[in-house]
Design goal:
Structural class: alpha+beta
Strand content: 15-25%
Number of strands: 23
CATH superfamily of the largest domain: DD-peptidase/beta-lactamase superfamily
Number of helices: 19
CATH architecture of the largest domain: 3-Layer(aba) Sandwich
CATH topology of the largest domain: Beta-lactamase
Shape: elongated
Distance between the termini: 148 Å
C-alpha cells in the first residue's frame, strides 16, 4: 500500500507537467502561426485597425562647391515647432528650492523671446486652434527654428511643446555666385539656376521608419524596419569662389560708377574651356531671393543677347586671314564714309581724312569702313559659315537654365546694309559666353573647346560622374590664330584704351566694342544708348585666360572706355589668382598704315 501511494503523486506531477508543456506548445504553435505562417495576413489586419505606424526620414540635399571644394550651397537642419493646445496652461517649476507655478502668460512670453513672436501672438495661435476644435492637440507655433533656438526651447521643459527637424538650404557666401547657383523655395523645391538644372545630382531621397504599435500606442519591440534616406550628390563647379567674389565687387562698383543698368565679368580658362568666374551686378542672394526684383534673380550672362559691336572685328579678321583673303599687312583705302556698290553706306565713329589702312590698322583704330571693305572680299556664305564655326548663334555646351542663343540670320536674308554691318558686330546678336568662346578659340591656336561650368557630381556612395561635353573644333588654323593675336596685341598697345588697360609685365590681346542698342518697342536703335564690351586674353605670348567685361547702357562714359578700368583690374586679379608668370618678350609692332 505504501509503494502504491508513493507512485500516485509522481504520476500526478508527470501528468501536470505534460499538461503545462502542452499548453506552452499550443502557445508556441499559435505564435509561430501569427508571426511567421500568417504574418502578412495579421499585418494587414493591424493596418486596417490602425495599429501600424511610420515616420519619414530626410536625406540631405547635396552641396554645391567651387573648384576647390568651398561650399556655395549646403544643407542644414531646421525645426518646425508646435504646441498641444489641450495641454496648454501653467506649469510647475522649482525655483531656489521652492515649487512655483508659472502661468501660461509668462510661458508664452518666454517662448516668444526665443522665436521672435509676442506673447499675445502665441496665445492667439492656441486660442484659434481651440476655437476651431476644443479637443485640438495641434497648433503650429513657427517654422524654421535653428538648432540653437530649438535647444533653448527644449531646455525649458514645457510639456506641451514639441519640434520636428527637417532639412533646409543655406548659402553661406550669400550672393557669391548667386546668379549661377540659383535657389530653392521654402518647401525645398528648386526654383532657379543650377539648383534646377542639376537637381538630378543634388536631390536626396527620403526614407521611412515603419513599426507596429499596441492598442496603447506603444511601439511593439522587434517590429521596427527602416528604409534609409539617401543624401544628394555633391556638385562641383569650375568657378573659383574667391575670384568670383572679387569680380562681383569690382563689377558692382564699375556699374554704379558709370551709371549703367547692369554689368558682367566672365572668365574662361583658355586650355580647358572651364568657366572660372561669372560675376554680374545686380545679382541675387539665394538666402533671400524675394529681396530683389525678379529680373535680378537669374543670370543675365547666360540669358541676355546683345549686338557685340567692334569686338566682332577680331572674328572678321580671323576669317579673312584663315581663308587667305587678307593678312595683317594687307591694305585698303578707307575714307570716313563709304558708299558701296550695292548702295549700303558705312561710316567710322570719328571724322578723319582718307587713310590707307592695313588690316592691323583697321583693328587698332576700329574702322567700320575698313573692316567692311575687307569683309566684302569674302562671300556672305563663307562669312556666315565661319561665324557658325566660332559658335555665334549656337549657344554653348554649358546648357545653363534659360540660356539664350545669339541670332545670325541666314545670308539669304541679309539686305544690302546687313552684308557689311555684320562685319563690325551689328545686325546680329550674341551672348557673353558665345563671345568668350570665340575669343578662347583664337587664344587657343584656333581650337574652340566646349565651355564647362560643372566639373562633376559625386553621389552619396562615392560614384563620380562628369558631364558629357561637346567635341573640340578647329575653327581657324594655328597660324591664322597667331596673326590675329598679334593684331589684338597691337590694339592693346596702340588702341584707344591702351593707356587704361596695360598690366606691367604682361602682354595683352584685346578688342573693344561699343554697340547701339535696339529699342524693342520701336524696332529702331535707341538714341544715345550703348552696350559696351572689352574682350581679351593674356598673356598674349602664352594665352591662359579670356576675360570679357560688359556694361549695359553706361551713362557717364558711353564708349567701351567705361569698361577699361574693370577689365584691367579683372585681368590682374585672374593672373594673380592662378599665379601666371609674366611675359618674357615684347609685343610685335605691326604697321597701321600701308
Amino acid at each position: 500500500m505504501t509503494g502504491r501511494s508513493n507512485r500516485s503523486p509522481r504520476r500526478r506531477t508527470v501528468v501536470a507537467m505534460f499538461m503545462v508543456l502542452a499548453v506552452i506548445g499550443a502557445f508556441v504553435i499559435r505564435l509561430v502561426d501569427i508571426q511567421v505562417v500568417n504574418a502578412k495576413e495579421h499585418i494587414a489586419q493591424s493596418l486596417e485597425l490602425g495599429l501600424s505606424g511610420s515616420q519619414e526620414t530626410y536625406g540631405s540635399r547635396g552641396a554645391i562647391v567651387d573648384e576647390n571644394g568651398a561650399t556655395l550651397a549646403g544643407s542644414i537642419v531646421l525645426y518646425d515647432a508646435q504646441l498641444d493646445p489641450k495641454l496648454v496652461g501653467p506649469i510647475d517649476r522649482e525655483i531656489n528650492g521652492e515649487k512655483v507655478t508659472v502661468p501660461w502668460e509668462t510661458i508664452s512670453a518666454e517662448i516668444g523671446a526665443v522665436t521672435g513672436q509676442s506673447a499675445e501672438e502665441i496665445q492667439g495661435i492656441v486660442a484659434a486652434a481651440l476655437a476651431e476644435n476644443p479637443d485640438s492637440r495641434y497648433a503650429m507655433l513657427t517654422r524654421g527654428l535653428t538648432t540653437a533656438q530649438y535647444r533653448e526651447l527644449a531646455d525649458m521643459n514645457i510639456p506641451y511643446f514639441a519640434a520636428f527637424p527637417h532639412p533646409a538650404r543655406t548659402y553661406p557666401d550669400g550672393a557669391v555666385g548667386g546668379n549661377l547657383v540659383g535657389f530653392v523655395g521654402s518647401d525645398g523645391t528648386p526654383l532657379a539656376g543650377l539648383e534646377v538644372s542639376q537637381n538630378g545630382c543634388l536631390a536626396s531621397t527620403d526614407g521611412e521608419i515603419r513599426y507596429q504599435r499596441g492598442g496603447d500606442g506603444v511601439i511593439i519591440p522587434g517590429t521596427m524596419t527602416e528604409i534609409p534616406a539617401v543624401d544628394g550628390g555633391t556638385l562641383q563647379l569650375t568657378i573659383n569662389r574667391d575670384l568670383n567674389w572679387y569680380l562681383q565687387q569690382l563689377i558692382a562698383e564699375q556699374t554704379q560708377n558709370t551709371g549703367a543698368l547692369s554689368g558682367a565679368i566672365f572668365v574662361v580658362e583658355v586650355k580647358t574651356g572651364a568657366i572660372r568666374a561669372a560675376a554680374e551686378y545686380p545679382t541675387v542672394d539665394p538666402n533671400a531671393p524675394t529681396s530683389v526684383d525678379e529680373s535680378d534673380r537669374a543670370s543675365r550672362i547666360f540669358r541676355n543677347t546683345f549686338e557685340p559691336g567692334s569686338t566682332f572685328k577680331a572674328l572678321s579678321a580671323a576669317m579673312l586671314v584663315d581663308s587667305g583673303t587678307a593678312n595683317p599687312f594687307s591694305v585698303v583705302h578707307v575714307p570716313f564714309r563709304q558708299t558701296f556698290d550695292n548702295g549700303a553706306s558705312v561710316r567710322d565713329d570719328l571724322q578723319h581724312p582718307d587713310y590707307d589702312y592695313t588690316l592691323n590698322g583697321v583693328l587698332v583704330n576700329s574702322s567700320n569702313v575698313g573692316i567692311s571693305t575687307f569683309a566684302g572680299m569674302m562671300s556672305d556664305q563663307a562669312r556666315f559659315d565661319y561665324l557658325t564655326r566660332f559658335g555665334i548663334g549656337q549657344g554653348t555646351d554649358v546648357d545653363f537654365l534659360g540660356e539664350a542663343n545669339g541670332l545670325v540670320r541666314d545670308p539669304s536674308q541679309w539686305d544690302n546694309q546687313t552684308k557689311y554691318n555684320t562685319s563690325y558686330g551689328q545686325g546680329l546678336t550674341t551672348t557673353i559666353p558665345e563671345l568668350a568662346n570665340a575669343y578662347q578659340a583664337i587664344a587657343n591656336g584656333g581650337l574652340k573647346l566646349p565651355l564647362r561650368l560643372v566639373e562633376s557630381c559625386t553621389a552619396a556612395d562615392g560614384t563620380v560622374t562628369t558631364p558629357d561635353n561637346g567635341e573640340p573644333a578647329q575653327v581657324i588654323s594655328p597660324e591664322a590664330a597667331r596673326q590675329v593675336t598679334d593684331m589684338l596685341e597691337n590694339v592693346a598697345t596702340k588702341g584707344s584704351v591702351s593707356e587704361k588697360v596695360g598690366i606691367a609685365g604682361y602682354r595683352l590681346a584685346l578688342k573693344t566694342g561699343t554697340a547701339e542698342k535696339v529699342d524693342p518697342g520701336a524696332g529702331t536703335y535707341k538714341v544715345g544708348s550703348y552696350f559696351t564690351t572689352i574682350a581679351g586674353f593674356a598673356p598674349a605670348d602664352d594665352p591662359q585666360y579670356v576675360v570679357v567685361v560688359t556694361l549695359d547702357e553706361p551713362s557717364t562714359i558711353k564708349s567701351s572706355s567705361a569698361n577699361a578700368p574693370a577689365f584691367r583690374e579683372a585681368m590682374t586679379q585672374v593672373l594673380k589668382t592662378y599665379r601666371i608668370m609674366p611675359s618674357n618678350s615684347a609685343s610685335p609692332d605691326l604697321p597701321t598704315f600701308g
